[in-house]
Structures
1.
Amino acid sequence: DLCSSSTGAVEMEPDGLILIGKEDDIKKSQRVTAKVNGREVVVFYHEGKFHAMDSRCYHEGGPLRLGEIEDINGQACIVCPWHKYKITLETGEGLYEGINPLEPSPTPQWQSKGVKQRIHKVTIDNGNVYVSPPDLSVSFDSDYFADKYKNSGDLAM
Ligand code: FES
């Protein structure tokens, strides 16, 4: 059955986009993993929007596809199952809770470490969900683990 692969048989579309799956199916399952140019990518459907990012956490390669989504200061974040790092779905920023000791009564505030996880552009067309091939002229911390697990066959834990 050619249609049953949930890990996403990769098909190249004429315009270079990579087909991930049917819009309706991903809306139901809320997340799906696929190989995009050999790298593990996870596509989430969360609160009416699709997001795609490298599936291997920028910290030590944890499987973000198995993480929970949490709202942090109004930003939807995936929480890595390994060491609980938080990564925004929208931008791939790593968030941390920091304290400014110079404040009169310091309280922890969520702050950004910058974009750590490579995100991928999602396109919806005619009921299908596509991801754009990554622009490798720009690099992100998660690239190291994307390469390490590249073409590793099974989606290992
Ligand atoms: Fe993701 Fe450490 S591997 S938090």
2.
Amino acid sequence: MNFYDKYQAEFREYDAMTRDFIDDDKIWDQLHKAANSSKTAVRKVLAKAERKVRLDPEEMAILIQNQDQGTIEEMYALANKVKREVYGDRIVFFAPLYISNKCANNCRYCGFRRENKLVERRTLTLEEIADEVKTMISEGQKRTVLVYGESPETGIDFICDSVRQVYRTKWGNGEIRRANINCAPLSRAELAKLKEVGIGTFQVFQETYHHQTYREMHPAGTIKSHYRWRLYAQDRALDAGLDDVAIGALFGLYDWRFELMGLLYHTIHLEEKYNGVGPHTISFPRIEPAIGTPFSVRPKYAVSDAEFKKIVAIMRLAVPYAGLILTAREKPEVRREVLPLGVTQIDAGTRIGVGGYRQAAGNMLPAKEQFQLGDTRSLDQVVYETCLMGNFPSFCTACYRVGRTGEDFMAVAKSSFVHNFCMPNAILTLKEYLLDFASEETRKAGDRAIQQYVDQMAEGKRKDFLRQALARLEQGERDIRV
Ligand code: SAM
Ligand code: SF4
């Protein structure tokens, strides 16, 4: 069978639909209506957001269209408050692991696209995956997202083998405790196999929610050109029993205002269909120039740093219980600026070349990468800075490992659980990092932050537990969690 025919039978389900949940005209209509909203209207939306209730599209449109600097500043302050109340002062750390850059698609913006002759194509063998994972663990990583192009070589059985290999690989005291997946949309039968191997989150970015732009970016004749196959990728994952799904848009392909609305409509669709379970995380990468790829950001739709700040804050307020991921595509100065506006996860120490971790550790020439990274600092440097900024780097994977995912996780996030469990787990996993992997300077900064946190806790069982657990870690015990 021709590779492009792989899902032809399954496409019928979507081809038969007369419409999907993204109505381009309606979105523009809502955005136009919200233009010139009064400060009172903006403050009314902010008051709802303060109650940590998911916003409706009309309300999000008001925040998007607001040009008044005073209320924009109020929005930033509120986004920071909501983030701290829901998630605490912690930032979850992860690093992507690029498994294969072979791809049969031809997305105009991506360095992995089929027609790009400047990229050396590689799929890691299982042995090479183990080598990459060992290097990542030796740097202190505990969570990863595995990234794959879409090619016959990286079908579902290979993906499952690679996940097993990641979990099986150990180095010293360490291991990868959660492997998320970023790959092409899959069928329900394939997704059920992913459930069996125990992946964390299943992540697919729609790239652009705008139908016409989607067609222009993804040439016909490729699997990726099927908008609805992609749009309903998370539905199929939930149907197949996976608990955590993630969405995202690639900013710079079309108007950022429209894409934000698309992300909200996607969230609402999932919440309504799956018993209140929305996306576990939302990503909002900006396009970066890619090697051998003349198409980059469309100047008309380039997202400025000021607009990027708005995107993060509005997303935080509109969907208070979804994690927000900020990747190392962004430069350190941008990351510093937007982190307080509601980001919950960042990657650090990232290498996006296939085989890139070992190459970097061995000072070999870097592999040609998918796009240019903005933040090339080491994990240690970013942990250090995060501690100084008053946040606790967290390597926690407890919820996933005890089965608090999907619906259960949403219930957890909506309660004080985060402060009673996630914060202590953040501190304990940070302490593990400091003991096993950190530089002297980072260890001191991290220990100082931990001490301050413990000192300000009220006396009682929680404080006693944390003190004792920290002492047990110092004595060599590992993987202590609440
Ligand atoms: N092949 C799978 C797919 O397309 O969903 C997963 C891997 S793909 C490398 C992961 C994501 O990288 C894409 O969904 C896209 O949003 C992002 N990406 C592609 N080209 C990019 C670029 N030039 N700059 C930033 N992100 C890019
Ligand atoms: Fe392939 Fe994904 Fe890149 Fe498109 S974005 S060319 S599908 S790797």
3.
Amino acid sequence: MKKIGIIGAMEEEVKELTSMLINRKTTKIAGLSVEEGVIEGKEVAIVECGIAKVNAAMCTQILISEFNVDSVINTGVAGALHDKLNINDIVISTDAIEYDVDASPLGDPKGTIPRMKTSVFKSDERMIKAAYDAFLEEDLKFKAYKGRVVTGDQFVADNETKNVLKNDFNGYCCEMEGGAIAHVAYLNEVPFVIIRAISDKADSSADMTYDEFVKIAAINSKEMVVNMLKRL
Ligand code: ADE
């Protein structure tokens, strides 16, 4: 992998990583600041893309087309869907979907994008392994699981939505960018993985736990990414 794109939605999710850059160079484009440099001997381009799917999709395409990244890591926080997840645990994506695509009146199941070959975007096996090996081999203070990341343009904070995402879409965790990044990576045939730390349980307490845990969860996600970079 020659240059790795690293995308986080919010400042909290990327600032620790950008502060580690060696030979840092900043380029402004389409409202984004692309921070290039080297971490763990790997060339990277790091961006705070902004929240939700359109920002994430545009950023991914710019990294691929303008900055020639040949793999993409999405780092950040997520709401837990699977019962075994606790706050601060990590989810490594096996695949990602955009659950809020709904053309069901035309006969397509919810979460399916009409006329695309697939709406389930598979993460790269080598990147999943690098992330999981980082968890197994480093002395990290959290647990890591592999599972499906489900993405939509909403902050999930009620049990009804949570149960739909868990039961109908087999989601492990929910967030607002990963599926869009995966979608663009798939169209460009660029490998990707999503690394998300759990900041809340996507239920009626989510807004409060999110505010309390977002910073520490973002740091956990960053630690995973750094340890993963060593292995790529
Ligand atoms: N990111 C972190 N927690 C989330 C939630 N509950 N819903 C959507 N995105 C999130």
